[in-house]
Amino acid sequence: MLSKSSSTTIIKKGDDVTLILDCDHREIRVNHHRTQQMAKISIDLQKCPFPWQILVTLDDVGDCVRILDKNYTL
Asked: ∠ CA 22-26-30 to the nearest 5 degrees?
């Protein structure tokens, strides 16, 4: 799982990640491009029904979120 901890940070400033909300397959995937790691979470709709809500925290000046067409290639 990709996460931020006190001793090491997997996602570093300038990294690109792709967040995929796959409602059809009931999963959330994060693709970390620098490390080439993929994290996947299967969602139990009994515990986490639709609509899903996502919180993204941007800590530094210049941090941003881009919403791209599903056919866009990095």
From this structure: 50
Q: What is d(CA 47, CA 20) in angstroms, rounded to the nearest whole number? A: 20
Specify if 69 maps to a domain.
no
Which residue range forms the structural domain that includes residue 14?
1-60
Give the count of domains, the chain.
Answer: 1
Report DSSP letters for 7-45, one per residue: S-BSS-TT--EEEEEETTTTEEEEEETTTTEEEEEE--T
Give the pLDDT of residue 73: 63
To the question of pTM greater than 0.70 for the whole model, the response is no
